[in-house]
């Protein structure tokens, strides 16, 4: 039998990159179902535990706070243990948190959301740095694929919440079921953690980064667009139910609103990365989101599906641009990891306020007028941040700053 041809180094690298792309895709699919699956079930959770709209918004809000708090530690963990191993460990934590939500009490639900927030917060800080490191020449395409899967995961989490409840027999099991795909992602990621280890990323002078105006613009854009997104994800089912839909239809429309995000999350970063300045793209994306949200609140209920799709297209574009800003505004992968940590840690603390404040305003006013005004105020500030963050420049560009 003739000997097998030798494996070329280029073939080995291509195979490794295919496995890496597959693993990043599966991980990103698992970073949102834990956050979006409670939304369609909030009415039942509120009835069972006797909580109001503001506290129900806090079910999602507590995870977002954890995304911010724990995400800040991600760069230090990566420098000590390597980003690949940290991601593996936190995928296991994410699966454990998701499973805990199905064990019974309101305390277990909140505890599970905290653990899920810990896992998601650290993982999503580290992935943009890996994209910058391994796919620098295709940053727009990889950012688009990553954010597309984030949006698909969010849509799947919201869309299957009610069907899973009906199939499994309880909302608790519906929430806990998402532990299985998180474990599958950990298994696919194993070769990255133990076969290949990247050098520990060096610090990017975090003190300077936190004094950089462009870094703060990227951070504010990330936080404010997430605030808008989680107001929609967390409260849309309640909005639709209070406007006459049943829980199943409300969950379906919420999923439909999230699904179009995948289209713009894929296309917009790929398109915007080819431009010298992304400011206009960011502002148009925010405007589309605002039109969709206002239509859901005040247009005739028969048009809910149309405005859900409009809002989804806008929000998909904004999350894609937010992640792209991290990749493009950083001069290298090490700075990208630290900028990702800063923007997502502060950003998701800002985002956590969205569903909580909107719920408080809804309870205070008795309708959705005050939450709509709050949404528009956040969108306006987001547009200002997007205009500045879209400039063709790098953070830490001036060595004397």
UniProtKB/TrEMBL annotation:
The UniProt keywords, alphabetically, are:
Membrane, Transmembrane, Transmembrane helix
Keyword Phosphoprotein applies: no
Which GO MF terms does the UniProt record name?
A: transmembrane transporter activity
Concerning Pfam families, the annotation shows:
MFS_1 (PF07690)
Q: Which InterPro entries match?
A: MFS, MFS_Cyanate_Porter, MFS_dom, MFS_trans_sf
Annotated TM spans: 54-74, 86-103, 109-131, 143-163, 175-194, 214-240, 252-273, 280-299, 305-327, 339-362, 368-389
Q: Which PANTHER family match?
A: 2-NITROIMIDAZOLE TRANSPORTER, PTHR23523
Name of the protein: MFS transporter
């Amino acid at each position: 039998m003739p000997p097998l041809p030798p494996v070329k180094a280029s073939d080995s690298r291509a195979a490794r990159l295919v496995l890496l792309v597959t693993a990043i895709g599966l991980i990103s699919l698992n970073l949102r179902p834990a956050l979006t699956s409670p939304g369609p079930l909030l009415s039942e959770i509120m009835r069972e535990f006797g909580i109001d709209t503001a506290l129900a918004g806090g079910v999602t809000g507590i995870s977002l706070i954890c995304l911010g708090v724990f995400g800040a530690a991600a760069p230090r963990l990566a420098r000590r243990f390597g980003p690949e191993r940290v991601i593996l460990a936190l995928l296991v934590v994410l699966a454990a948190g998701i499973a805990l939500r199905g064990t019974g009490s309101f305390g277990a639900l909140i505890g599970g959301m905290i653990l899920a927030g810990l896992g998601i917060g650290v993982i999503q800080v580290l992935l943009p740095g890996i994209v910058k490191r391994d796919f620098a020449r295709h940053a727009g395409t990889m950012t688009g694929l990553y954010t597309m899967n984030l949006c698909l995961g969010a849509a799947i989490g919201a869309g299957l919440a009610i069907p899973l409840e009906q199939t499994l027999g309880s909302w608790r099991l519906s929430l806990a079921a998402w532990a299985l795909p998180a474990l599958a992602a950990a298994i696919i990621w194993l070769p990255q953690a133990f076969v290949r280890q990247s050098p520990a990323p060096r610090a990017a002078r975090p003190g300077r980064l936190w004094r950089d105006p462009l870094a703060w613009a990227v951070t504010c854009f990330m936080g404010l667009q997430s605030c808008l997104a989680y107001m929609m994800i967390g409260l849309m089912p309640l909005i639709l139910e209070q406007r006459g839909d049943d829980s199943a239809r409300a969950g379906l429309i919420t999923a439909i609103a999230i699904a179009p995000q995948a289209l713009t999350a894929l296309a917009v970063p790929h398109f915007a990365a080819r431009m010298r300045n992304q400011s206009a793209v960011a502002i148009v994306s925010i405007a589309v989101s605002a039109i969709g949200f206002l239509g859901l609140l005040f247009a005739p209920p028969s048009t809910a599906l149309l405005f859900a799709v409009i809002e989804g297209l806008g929000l998909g574009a904004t999350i894609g641009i937010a992640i792209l800003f991290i990749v493009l505004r950083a001069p290298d992968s090490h700075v990208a990891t630290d900028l990702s940590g800063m923007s997502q840690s502060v950003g998701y603390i800002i985002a956590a306020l969205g569903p909580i404040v909107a719920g408080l305003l809804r309870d205070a006013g008795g309708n959705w007028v005050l939450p709509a005004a709050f949404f528009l105020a956040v969108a306006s500030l987001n547009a200002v941040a997007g205009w500045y963050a879209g400039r063709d420049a790098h953070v830490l560009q001036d060595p004397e700053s």
